[in-house]
Design brief:
Shape of chain B: globular
Distance between the termini of chain B: 47 Å
CATH topology of chain A: Ubiquitin-like (UB roll)
Helix content of chain B: 25-40%
Structural class of chain B: alpha/beta
Number of helices of chain A: 1
CATH class of chain A: Alpha Beta
Largest interface: A-B, 28 and 38 residues
Helix content of chain A: under 10%
Oligomer: heterodimer
C-alpha cells in the first residue's frame, strides 16, 4: 500500500464515515476494487495515488524537484513541466527512472 | 584517418561539433565504493562518464549519482541491457529528459551471455534516435559494414567492441579495428574489452579516436592507479599514432653504424 496516512495522496471519502469520525485517525476510503483506479508503476500494479504526476511522486516519497528523475506515461516521456497538470485517470503504465552507475 | 595528423598543438577530439577535453570515456559502475569511484574518475581525466537509466527504487531513496558527481563531468546515459528497439528508444528519451543531454550511448543487446549487439535492432534504433534529434554513439560489432551503416544513418561516432563487455579480453581483432578506423567517416571509439593499459594504447595506435572503458578500472586492484594508467596509455597511444610507427620488418636492421667496427 503506497498511500501514506496524512500525505498528499490520501484518498478521503466524500461523505464522513461516522464509524471513524472524530477519532483523529486518517480515513482511507476502500471502494470496491473495480472502481478503484490503479496504474502499472515500474512494472508493478499500484493504486493510483493522485491525479497528477507530482501526486504520485510525492506519495512515493520522491521529491519532484530532485535532479535526474524522469517519467514516462504509456511509453511517452512526460516532461517535468507537465507534472503539475492532471494526467492520470487509472490504467496507465508509468515509468519513473533516474540515472544510476553504469558503463 | 584523423584529420589532425599534422599537428599536436590542438589535438582535441570533436564529436558532433563539440570539442572534448579527453579521449578517454569512463563508466561509473562496479567500483568497490563511491569514494573509490570518484577518485578513479578524477584520475582518469575523463570529461564524459557513462550512466545507466534505471527504474527508481520505490522502497527507499538511494543516493543520487548526479549529486555524487557534483557537476564535474558530462554524463552520457546508456541503454545498457535493452533488447528491443522500443525499450532502447524510450530509455534514451528518458535519459535525455533526466540528464538534459541529447547524447546517448546506444546498446542493443542480442545475447545475454556474450552481450553481443543485435545489429538488426541496433540499426533500427539508431535511425529512430537520429530522427528524434539525438547524438547517437552506438556500441557495435567490430564489423566495417555495420560501422559504415551506422555512420550513414547519422550516428556521430561508432563504438566497436574490442572483445566482450566486461571480459578484459583486450582487442581480439586489431586488424579489423584498424580497418574500421581507416574507413570510418566518423570518430571510432573502442568500446568494451579493454583489460589493461596496453589495450587502450593499442586502440589509439590502431587509429581509434578514443576509448570507452569501465571494468578494467573499476575491478582493478587499485582503481585510481589504473585510471591514471589508462589516461597515460590513451595519451601515449594517440601520440604514437600521430608520430607514425615504423614499418614492421621480417629481419633485423642494425641501428648502430656498420663501419669502423673494431677488429674488422
Amino acid at each position: 500500500m503506497l498511500v501514506r496516512a496524512g500525505g498528499p495522496a490520501e484518498i478521503t471519502p466524500t461523505e464522513p464515515d461516522t464509524g471513524n469520525a472524530g477519532e483523529g485517525r486518517p480515513i482511507i476510503a476502500t471502494p470496491p476494487p473495480s472502481y478503484r483506479p490503479r496504474i502499472t508503476l515500474n512494472g508493478e500494479d499500484h493504486p493510483l495515488a493522485g491525479a497528477r504526476v507530482v501526486d504520485v511522486l510525492q506519495a512515493l516519497g520522491i521529491d519532484p524537484a530532485r535532479r535526474g528523475v524522469a517519467v514516462a506515461i504509456n511509453g511517452t516521456v512526460a516532461p517535468r513541466a507537465t507534472w503539475v497538470d492532471a494526467l492520470l485517470s487509472g490504467g496507465e503504465t508509468v515509468e519513473i527512472i533516474r540515472p544510476l552507475q553504469g558503463g | 584517418m584523423p584529420q589532425d595528423m599534422t599537428t599536436t598543438d590542438d589535438d582535441a577530439l570533436t564529436i558532433a561539433g563539440e570539442r572534448l577535453g579527453s579521449r578517454l570515456f569512463i563508466g561509473t559502475a562496479g567500483y568497490p565504493n563511491q569514494q573509490i569511484m570518484l577518485e578513479a574518475l578524477a584520475a582518469s581525466g575523463a570529461e564524459i562518464v557513462t550512466a545507466a537509466i534505471r527504474r527508481i527504487d520505490l522502497t527507499g531513496s538511494s543516493e543520487s549519482l548526479l549529486d555524487l558527481l557534483g557537476g564535474r563531468y558530462r554524463v552520457l546515459p546508456n541503454t545498457a541491457g535493452c533488447a528491443t528497439v522500443q525499450d532502447a528508444v524510450l530509455t534514451a528519451q528518458l535519459g535525455r529528459e533526466a540528464l538534459g543531454t541529447g547524447w546517448i550511448k546506444l546498446e542493443l543487446i542480442g545475447d545475454r551471455e556474450t552481450l553481443y549487439p543485435d545489429v538488426e535492432q541496433l540499426l533500427q534504433a539508431a535511425a529512430a534516435l537520429v530522427a528524434d534529434g539525438f547524438t547517437v554513439l552506438p556500441y557495435c560489432n567490430d564489423d566495417p559494414v555495420t560501422c559504415r551503416k551506422l555512420a550513414d544513418l547519422g550516428c556521430a561516432a561508432v563504438m566497436p567492441l574490442g572483445s566482450f563487455i566486461g571480459s578484459g579480453g583486450g582487442i581480439r581483432n586489431p586488424a579489423i579495428i584498424e580497418l574500421i578506423c581507416a574507413r570510418s567517416p566518423v570518430p571510432v571509439i573502442l568500446d568494451a574489452g579493454i583489460g589493461t593499459a596496453s589495450d587502450a594504447a593499442l586502440a589509439m595506435e590502431l587509429g581509434c579516436a578514443g576509448v570507452l572503458l569501465n571494468s578494467a578500472v573499476a575491478k582493478a586492484h587499485a582503481p585510481a592507479r589504473m585510471a591514471a594508467a589508462m589516461r597515460q596509455a590513451v595519451a601515449a597511444g594517440r601520440a604514437a599514432r600521430l608520430a607514425g610507427r615504423i614499418a614492421k620488418r621480417d629481419h633485423g636492421e642494425p641501428s648502430s653504424p656498420q663501419l669502423g667496427l673494431i677488429g674488422a
